[in-house]
């Protein structure tokens, strides 16, 4: 994946704001909801093809803390695959497997992410 497509200041704000984000408290979401939000971020930045390794790399780069315990999340491929089958934001119908651990995003509504980022800029939380 081309990581340069992501605006890391915005993504960092969205994922690591620790209750300071306006719409999403990413750290306290279940893993499956975090994956849904991550796919929303990818799609917002025109990244529509991703792999399980891309998601693992994202968690490694962002150092997302574990929910209710010490350390950072290091998701296994099976945990990621399982999360991709859930249907919280109607993601399931909009994700297609296109190969071994490779997926294509058909469509994801990014309004939640867009709104949160706009509020972050409005309140000088993203600089």
Mean pLDDT: 85
How many helices?
A: 5
Helix/strand order:
HHEHHEEH
Largest sheet: 3 strands, antiparallel
Rg estimate, integer Å:
14 Å
The computed structural class is mainly alpha
Roughly what fraction of the amino acids lie in strands?
5-15%
Strands side by side in the biggest sheet: 1-3-2
| Tertiary shape | globular
**Helix proportion of residues, in percent?**
40-55%
- Separation, N- and C-terminal Cα atoms: 25 Å
How many strand units?
A: 3
Q: Could you name the ranges where pLDDT drops below 50 across 5 or more consecutive residues?
A: none
Structural features, described:
The mean pLDDT is 85. The chain is mostly helical and 127 residues long. It has helices at residues 8-16, 31-44, 52-62, 77-84, 111-122; strands at residues 49-51, 95-99, 102-105. Strands 1-3-2 form a three-stranded antiparallel sheet. Helix 2 (31-44) crosses helix 4 (77-84).
């Amino acid at each position: 994946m081309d990581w340069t497509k992501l605006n890391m200041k915005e993504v960092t704000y969205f994922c690591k704001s620790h209750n300071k984000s306006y719409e999403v408290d990413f750290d306290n979401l279940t893993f499956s909801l975090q994956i849904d939000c991550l796919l929303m971020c990818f799609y917002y930045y025109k990244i529509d093809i991703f792999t399980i390794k891309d998601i693992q790399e994202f968690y490694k780069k962002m150092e997302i803390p574990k929910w209710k315990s010490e350390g950072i999340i290091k998701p296994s491929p099976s945990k990621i695959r399982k999360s991709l089958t859930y249907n919280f934001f109607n993601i399931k119908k909009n994700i297609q497997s296109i190969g071994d651990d490779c997926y294509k995003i058909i469509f994801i509504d990014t309004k939640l992410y867009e709104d949160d980022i706009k509020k972050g800029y409005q309140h000088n939380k993203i600089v």
